[in-house]
Amino acid sequence: MRIRLDRTICDGFGACAKHAPNHFSLDDWGYASLVGDGTVAEADRDDVLRALFDCPVHAIIEISDNEFDGETRPDPAAATADETPLFEARWGFAQ
After folding, report:
1. Spatial distance between the Cα atoms of 38 and 5, rounded to a whole number of angstroms
2. Which positions carry the signal peptide feature in this UniProt record (predicted)?
């Protein structure tokens, strides 16, 4: 799992640092910074997801490894009758 923090929309609530202090730090004014490169170990996944869900301004974003490789959205017309297409939030809250 990888995450990104958009500091331009952070309002300094601090929920991220409360839930996942190994991945987020707060500056003197309470605004978050990402610790490390955004890679989340499996052991920290639940804490980081809780921080992601509790961020009131959605400044934390989960990204996939292929986020910028030109992958396109799945075609819902290509799904069979027994198969429901899975659409993931690429730039939203979570998957």
Report:
1. 8
2. none
Give the torsion through C-alpha atoms of 22, 24, 28, 31, to 10 deg.
-170
Tell me, what amino acid is at 94? A
Q: 54, 41 in Cβ contact below 8 A?
A: no
d(CA 86, CA 32): 32
pLDDT band of residue 45 (cuts 50, 70, 90) is very high
Please tell me the number of Cα atoms within 13 Å of 53 on its side-chain side. 8
Cβ contacts of residue 16 below 8 Å, gap of 6+? 5, 23, 24, 32, 51, 52, 54, 55, 59, 60
Q: Are 32 and 12 in contact (CB under 8 A)?
A: yes
pTM of the model: 0.64
**Nearest-angstrom CA–CA distance, 45 and 51:** 10
